Amino acid sequence: MPDSAGPPVPEPSGPTRRDFTRSTTREPHAPRGRELLRKHPAIRGLAGRNPWSALLVLLLVGVQTGAAWLLREESIWLILLAAFCCGAFVSHTLWVLIHECAHNLVFRGGVWNRALAILANLPHLLPSAVSFQKYHLKHHAFQGVYELDADIPGVWEARLVGRTAIGKALWLFLFPVFQVTRPARLKEIRLFDGWVAVNIAAQLAYDALVFFLLGPKALLFLGASFFFSVGLHPLGARWIQEHYLVHGSQETTSYYGFLNVLALNVGYHNEHHDFPSVPWNRLPAVKREVPEVYDALFSHRSWTRLLFRFLFDPSLSLWSRVVRAERGGVSVAAPVAMEELREAS
C-alpha cells in the first residue's frame, strides 16, 4: 500500500505525548519469516551471497577518493554542493555495502566480510564499520528492546530534540553524533576488540594520506558527503522510513521509490528484516514471491516527501518508535531505563 493510498489509521501517540509506544509482543519479523518460508519454500533459494558487491566497493571507494582529488582546489561552496548532489549518494551506497558485509552477504567467511567493510568505510573518514555490525545484528534480533537496540533513540535524545522542525532538522544534521552516544546504554555488546582496532588504524591511515596528499578540502568533501548521506538530505529520510511510526502501529516500513537503484534496494526493509540472509540484489524477488503480504503493508514512494513530513508534522518525533521489554518471552527491562522513560512521560 503506497503512502498515498489506504484508509487513514490513527497515530498511536499524539503531538504532546513524551513516551515511546510500548509493545508487549516480540518483534514481528522472525515469526512472519518462518510462516512465509513454510508457505513459500522457494524463498529459501533467494538466500546466499553476492560476491559482485566486492567489486562495487572497490569501484565506489575509487570514485569517491577520485572525486575528492578533483575537488581538492575548488571553492568550499562548490565542494559542499558536489557533496550534497553526488558524494552523498556514493557514500550512502558504501553504507549499504557495509550493511551487506555485516550480514556476511558478500563472502562466505566473516574475516573477508569484515575486511571488505573496513575498506568500504574509508571514504566516510570515521571508523564505524566493525562497530556497526555489532549493533546492527542486535537490532535485528531484538528490534525495539531499549537496552539492546541502538536504532532506538535515547530518552534524553528524544526529549532534547522535541517536535519542532528546527529541532528535528538539527538532529538529522548531526545524526552521526547522536548515534555515537547510544552504545553507552546498551547491554551485552563489547565495544572494543581487535577488529575495532584494525578499523581505527586503517581509517587513521587513510585520513592522513588524504590530508597530506590531497589536502584539507578533499577531507571536507568526504566528510560532507558522509554527513549528508545519513543526515539532513533526502537519503537521511531512510532512517525515518525504516522503523518510525508514520502509519498507525506498523513498526517497519519499506520504500519502493526509484532511489533504490542507487541505494541497492535498501528500501526493501520489511523484506530484509523478514529474510536477512537474502542479499540486496534479490530483495525485490522476495516481494514478487509474496505480493499479497508486502503489497498489503503501508510503504513509501518518496524519501523527499517523508523528510518534509517528518520535519513539519508535530505528531512525528523521536518518540514515534515502538519499544518492547522482552526478547523471545524473556524480559530484559532495566530498572534505570524504565525509570528514564517514566521521568520523560
Textual characterization of the structure:
- With about 350 residues, this protein is mainly alpha-helical.
- The chain has one domain.
- The protein has 16 helices and six strands.
- The longest helix has 27 residues.
Summarize the structure in short.
With 345 residues, this protein is mainly alpha-helical. The protein is built from 16 helices and 6 strands.
What is the overall shape? globular
Rg over alpha carbons? 20 Å
Helix percent reads 40-55%
Tell me the number of strands: 6
Task: Work out the count of structural domains.
Answer: 1
Identify the strand order in the major beta sheet.
1-4
Mean pLDDT across every amino acid position? 91
Class computed from helices, strands and strand pairing:
mainly alpha
**Helical run tally:** 16
- The ordered H/E elements are EHHHHHHHHHHHEHHHEHEEEH
Low-confidence stretches: 4-14, 333-345
* Sheet having the most strands: 2 strands, parallel
Question: Strand fraction band?
Answer: under 5%
Ends distance: 33 Å
Key terms:
345 residues; 53% helix; mainly alpha; two-stranded parallel ribbon; single chain
How are the elements arranged and paired?
Layout: E1 21-23, H1 29-39, H2 52-70, H3 76-102, H4 110-121, H5 129-141, H6 155-161, H7 165-173, H8 175-181, H9 194-214, H10 216-230, H11 238-243, E2 254-255, H12 269-274, H13 283-289, H14 291-294, E3 299-300, H15 303-312, E4 322-324, E5 326-327, E6 330-331, H16 335-344
Parallel strand pairs: 1-4, 2-3
Antiparallel strand pairs: 5-6
